[in-house]
Amino acid sequence: MVEPDVDVDVDERIPITVEFSGGLDMLFSNQRKHSVSLPTIDENGKPSTMASLVRHLCKHVLKDPREEFFVVDDAIRPGILVLINDADWGLEGEADYVLQKHDNILFVSTLHGG
């Protein structure tokens, strides 16, 4: 028998705070902080990850046509520091990090002085 708290509600959402610094905010309507909500399960039927978030940001939040200043080949552009809850995303699994409710994600362009 499956425990009720193990079931995943596919309609459940993950609220996340996303911040942009070092000039990246210019790509996102000159707004430094965004509140986004992603489904717990991505389009591939797997838990939503940082890769899911980046795709969501590019599709729904990025307003500038110069997407290549944020991503290159579906990956965060070199020179952008990514922090997940104030920790380097390299310590958290990078794009494979599974998003949690109320995560705080910060993207900092080091190419603009950070």
Characterization of the model:
Helices cover 11% and strands 30% of the residues. The protein has 114 residues and is mainly beta. The chain has a five-stranded mixed sheet, with helices on one face. The termini are far apart. The N terminus is likely disordered.
Summarize the structure.
The chain is mainly beta. It has one helix and seven strands; from the N terminus they run E-E-H-E-E-E-E-E. The protein has a five-stranded mixed sheet with strand order 2-1-7-5-6, covered by helices on one side. Strands 3-4 form a two-stranded antiparallel ribbon.
Q: Considering DSSP H and I runs of 4 or more, what fraction of the residues is helical?
A: 10-25%
Question: Beta-strand percentage?
Answer: 25-35%
H-E order: EEHEEEEE
> Mind telling me the C-alpha Rg?
15 Å
Main sheet overview:
5 strands, mixed
Mean pLDDT: 88
User: SS-based structural class?
Assistant: mainly beta
Adjacency order of strands in the biggest sheet: 2-1-7-5-6
How would the global form be characterised? globular
Number of E strands: 7
**Roughly how many Å apart are the termini?**
51 Å
- Poorly predicted parts: 1-8
The helix count comes to: 1
Indicate the topology.
Blueprint (H helix, E strand, L loop, with lengths): L12 E9 L11 E7 L10 H12 L9 E2 L2 E2 L3 E5 L2 E2 L14 E7 L5
Parallel strand pairs: 1-7
Antiparallel strand pairs: 1-2, 3-4, 5-6, 5-7
Question: Main traits of this protein?
Answer:
114 residues, mainly beta, five-stranded mixed sheet, two-stranded antiparallel ribbon, 1 helix, 7 strands, globular
